[in-house]
Amino acid sequence: MNLTEYIQQVSREDFGKEFRHQAHWNRRLKTTGGRFFPKDGHLDFNPRYYEADKDLFRKIVRHELCHYHLYFEQKGYRHKDRDFKELLQAVDGVRYAPQLASPAQTPYLYRCQQCGQVYPRKRRVNTANYRCGKCRGFLTVVDERNQSLG
Predict the structure, then answer these.
(1) Per-residue pLDDT tens digits for 77-136
(2) The model's pTM
(3) Strands ordered across the beta sheet of 43-45
(4) Is 69 annotated as a binding residue?
(5) 12 secondary structure, DSSP code
(6) Is 67 part of any known ligand binding site?
(7) Which CATH code of 3.40.50.970, 3.40.190.10, 3.40.50.2300, 3.30.2010.10 fits the domain covering 3-90?
(8) Catalytic residue (choose from 18, 51, 64, 86)
């Protein structure tokens, strides 16, 4: 799919206006669906939203096009502006992109041998140097199937 052509189509169908700049995929976007750059007029979009839900992605495109068209019409294009809020509601865009389901954020799981307290962690912990904060017991590594590894 050519993203710029898709954005031009959405702009014509939903706004009745032309989109004259470029649109790009940006995998580095983590918590947002898209971004508008007033300096040069281009748009960036998170491809994960397109892969997850095409209808939601179209609403995100409408949101960014609201910024785009209002900016070039010299109207209020920021989230707090009345012009933006009214146009967004008129074209049925989303105000905020919902959070996508992400892969496991805590790949390491540790359990106290004495009290059973569980410690999910993003980074490895040296179990020889760290103890349970509740009872000072020793920690063991636990995998996803809750089987002890050591």
Answers:
(1) 999 999 999 999 999 999 998 888 766 677 899 999 999 999 999 899 999 999 999 999
(2) 0.70
(3) 23-25, 43-45, 34-36
(4) no
(5) I
(6) yes
(7) 3.30.2010.10
(8) 64
